[in-house]
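[worker-b] picked up task from shared queue
[worker-b] task type: protein-ligand structure
[worker-b] ligand name resolved to fe (ii) ion; SMILES cross-checked against name lookup, match
[worker-b] sequence length check passed
[worker-b] input payload:
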Amino acid sequence: MMSGYVSENVEIAAYTALIAAAQAAGDPETSAACERILPQEIAMAKWLLDHLPDT
Ligand SMILES: [Fe+2]
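[worker-b] inference finished, payload out:
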């Protein structure tokens, strides 16, 4: 459970960096794809954290 939470936060950092890189490179398609995925990673990290105490 803790490893999953760490992994989700690594993904959040990665997608955040990818969005910035895609914007800097003038690649709106990649930026848009990452912006669609990022909220899912944030939601999963929150779900894992919320359920960690019960686990
Ligand atoms: Fe994920």
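[worker-b] attaching auto-annotations
[worker-b] The CA atoms of residues 9 and 17 lie 12 Å apart.
[worker-b] releasing lock
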